[in-house]
TrEMBL record:
InterPro entries cross-referenced by the UniProt entry: PPR_rpt, TPR-like_helical_dom_sf
Organism of provenance: Lasiosphaeris hirsuta
Superkingdom classification of source: Eukaryota
Keyword terms of this UniProt record: Repeat
Coiled coil: none
PPR repeats: from-to residues: 208-242, 278-308
Record's protein name: Pentatricopeptide repeat-containing protein
């Protein structure tokens, strides 16, 4: 792939962004008043402004005590024999280690150790240890169907023992049900709503602001905007206050509706509310602008994000654990900043707004998969090096999808030679054990489709063998790939 000359952001002394500068990061609509966030929500809710009164929401009370949550105490657990005591010690050590350093113990080890206990297993665990186990299982490296089923299996055993779940554990279950796949559909939305109903009407626990944000997020991403508006209205009627989660979800909501005026209004209100603006919020705006066809505005926002890194060296690498800690810190900073406005600029200066792996995933998916602009893709990949961002699996997936969509045509920039260059980089990254990169069925399918579009049948078979040597798939997924390959080469 021919790479354009790298243009690094201009160096200038870093300084704290004022409210006006934060607002200026996202341009207003041309010759149009954006209006307030409430204006746009009201319009989305009732486009003809009929003004129907909303129905009263259900009134639910909470009846939970600390004794319920902490049951059983260490003295009340089922007394283990020597073998069971050794299993419990191994499980406790694995869970504690995982919560301190997630890299040292994987969740498969924890779950397999847990399953070695005789049934029913839950009575062997004290209340405190049970919460630690669920917290560990509820924080996988990535939400997948496997991690979801593992979490729900333990939840089912807890419910079978008549032990109540905490609100945080219900929220985690709802999050799993809605986010274990990359793209949310009506299926995930219905699963999340079913758990919410069970939480409120069977367990008697009223949903929190976190619960409603999860529900709003999955409804929006599944394209069920009517349901999303109902959830938002219910959240309002219960008096839940907004925080950064809700504002980012609203930005995403309006972006999916292709309503950039509403999206800008949500961003402005987020700034005015004193929330800390970071890359996550700007990525939501960037995705909405590109989805709505405002490429020029999106590229100017990207340039401002790049410029924010001027003069800053050794930009930190974001991980799953650090992302959680950073989000909690930003929520705390916003809360303190509202109480002590003079401190808000200092907190904002701590937040990073430079491009991250998600930024480049958004850009490469749009310009590569949708537009087929390989020149821009080369530019973005080159600029990733400046920010020390490795070629994550999501980036390779977008690149191979681009070749599958736009390759195989005479004099196309998406040529077999360039595809082989990407393939070589991919193999090198896999063999070097780059973090966040593994061969799953979805990625393998797009790689094979890319070579089927751009190369020969024999090359596709060679690529399949190279993938097979490096993947770690279970028997069902291996058979799926065999069937997929057979259909592909015999088209």
């Amino acid at each position: 792939m021919v790479k354009p000359r790298q243009q690094r952001p201009r160096r200038s002394p870093p300084s704290s962004l004022t409210k006006a500068e934060l607002l200026a990061l996202v341009e207003p609509c041309d010759n149009e008043e954006s209006g307030t966030l409430e204006d746009h929500l009201q319009y989305a809710r009732d486009p003809y402004m009929r003004g129907y009164a909303p129905a009263d929401g259900p009134t639910v009370t909470i009846a939970r005590s600390k004794q319920d949550a902490d049951y059983p105490s260490p003295e009340e657990v089922t007394q283990p024999n020597d073998e069971e005591r050794q299993i419990l010690w191994s499980l406790r050590f694995a869970v504690t280690t995982r919560l301190k350093n997630r890299e040292k113990v994987d969740l498969d080890t924890i779950y397999e150790t847990y399953q070695r206990l005789p049934e029913p297993r839950i009575p062997y665990l004290s209340g405190r240890f049970r919460h630690q186990l669920l917290r560990a299982l509820g924080q996988p490296d990535k939400k997948t169907s496997k991690s979801m089923l593992r979490y729900f299996a333990v939840i089912a055993e807890i419910k079978d023992c008549g032990i109540p779940l905490t609100r945080a554990q219900w929220n985690c279950g709802i999050s799993f049900a809605s986010r274990y796949v990359g793209v949310s559909t009506e299926t995930e939305t219905e699963a999340a709503l079913k758990l919410w109903r069970e939480m409120e009407f069977e367990a008697g626990l009223k949903g929190s602001d976190v619960t409603f944000n999860i529900l709003f997020d999955v409804a929006s991403k599944s394209g069920n905007f009517t349901l999303a508006e109902m959830i938002y209205k219910e959240m309002e009627s219960r008096g839940h206050t907004f925080n950064r989660y809700h504002y980012v979800s609203l930005i995403h909501f309006f972006g999916l509706r292709l309503d950039t005026s509403g999206m800008r209004a949500a961003y402005v209100e987020m700034v005015e509310a004193g929330e800390i603006i970071d890359t996550v919020a700007l990525n939501a705006v960037l995705a909405g602008l590109l989805r709505s066809g405002e490429e020029a505005a999106a590229e100017r926002l990207y340039e401002r994000m790049k410029a924010s890194a001027s003069g800053k060296k050794d930009l930190p690498t974001r991980t799953y654990a650090s992302n959680r800690a950073i989000t909690q810190a930003l929520l705390m900073f916003a809360k303190i900043g509202r109480r002590h406005p003079s401190m808000q600029p200092t907190f904002q200066d701590v937040a990073l707004i430079h491009p991250d792996i998600r930024t480049y995933g958004i850009l490469i998916n749009h310009y590569g998969v949708k537009r087929g602009d390989l020149g821009k893709i080369a530019k973005f990949v080159d600029e990733m090096k400046f920010f020390q961002i490795p070629l994550h699996g999501a980036i390779f997936l977008a690149l191979f999808k681009g070749f599958s969509h736009h390759g195989g045509q005479m004099r196309s920039a998406w040529s077999e030679q360039r595809l082989l260059s990407i393939w070589s980089a991919f193999l090198r990254a896999i063999d070097e054990g780059v973090s966040g990169l593994e061969i799953k069925t979805w990625l393998a399918m797009w790689i094979l489709q890319a070579f089927h579009k751009c190369s020969t049948r024999d090359r596709v078979l060679d690529i399949y063998e190279a993938l097979k040597e490096r993947w770690h798939l279970d028997e069902a997924d291996e058979q799926f790939m065999i069937d997929f390959l057979s259909k592909l080469v015999n088209r």
